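Quick one:
INPUT:
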């Protein structure tokens, strides 16, 4: 089954659109733009280096897609400032955004944060549906709870994510590592589940919960699957048993909590390696 957003999901996603300002992406410097604004135009690499303290927030990363990777320069303008530029400069900038593939150019119109603020709720959802097409959002395949074997159903309920299956987070940030960390404790801590987590923090959760890396190639229900690229962990999932695992494929708000088949993992994670973390029995550990 394809996992698609409900009207309620779309309503939540509307809150992920930029409201305080806009990012403008460039291939090369435009003198008229430099003269028209009071803030510097920075290399795209510097915007990335600013991380979450700058305009490249988690929601913005989803909203603007691959724009920053396709651009050489970038600047941020407060809401309404683009509309104050001359019509000729606005037209030139819109053409550059179109060339780069910035997904906020919808039906040849630049949907700025100011434009977004003027839309009604129904117009925002309609625009968001078009944004999904423009941004080429990939909707994942998954399995319903009833389609899962009993062992997988039991394990999914045990980790506390049965109600989240085939649903979406309300904003960007919650990722695979946070999902697994929360699952280790039955998903009782929603603050953990909704974090943007990196591998070292998940590794701490695994150690705290008595998990260790195993040499086994055969997972059992409840084991943690770690997918790595050049020995760097980039993804994690919970094995449910009978060839199924539970995951959140990424941090974007449009990436769902879903179940996938372990036998297909190399199709999903080409050029990655897979290792298994198992929970050891502390009662069998020798006393020092």
């Amino acid at each position: 089954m394809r996992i698609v957003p409900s009207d309620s999901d779309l309503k939540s996603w509307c809150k992920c659109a930029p409201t305080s300002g806009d990012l403008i992406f460039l291939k090369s410097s435009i003198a008229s733009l430099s003269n028209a604004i009071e803030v510097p135009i920075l290399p795209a690499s510097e915007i990335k280096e600013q991380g979450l303290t700058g305009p490249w927030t988690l929601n913005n990363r989803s909203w603007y897609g691959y724009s920053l990777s396709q651009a050489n320069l970038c600047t941020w303008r407060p809401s309404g400032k683009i509309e104050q530029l001359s019509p000729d400069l606005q037209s030139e900038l819109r053409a550059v955004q179109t060339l780069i593939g910035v997904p906020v150019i919808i039906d040849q119109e630049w949907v700025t944060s100011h434009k977004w603020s003027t839309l009604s709720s129904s117009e925002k959802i309609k625009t968001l549906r078009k944004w999904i097409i423009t941004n080429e959002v990939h909707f994942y395949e998954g399995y319903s709870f009833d389609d899962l074997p009993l062992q997988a159903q039991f394990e999914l309920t045990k980790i506390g994510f049965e109600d989240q299956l085939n649903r979406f987070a309300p904003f960007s940030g919650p990722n695979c590592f946070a999902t697994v960390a929360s699952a280790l404790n039955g998903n009782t801590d929603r603050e953990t589940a909704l974090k943007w987590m990196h591998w070292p923090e998940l590794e701490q959760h695994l150690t705290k919960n008595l998990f260790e890396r195993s040499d086994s190639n055969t997972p059992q229900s409840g084991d943690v699957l770690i997918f790595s690229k050049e020995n760097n962990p980039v993804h994690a999932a919970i094995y449910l048993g009978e060839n199924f695992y539970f995951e959140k494929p990424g941090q974007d708000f449009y990436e769902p909590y879903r179940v996938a088949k372990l036998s297909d993992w190399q199709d999903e994670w080409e050029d990655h390696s897979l290792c298994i973390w198992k929970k050891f029995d502390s009662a069998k550990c020798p006393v020092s």
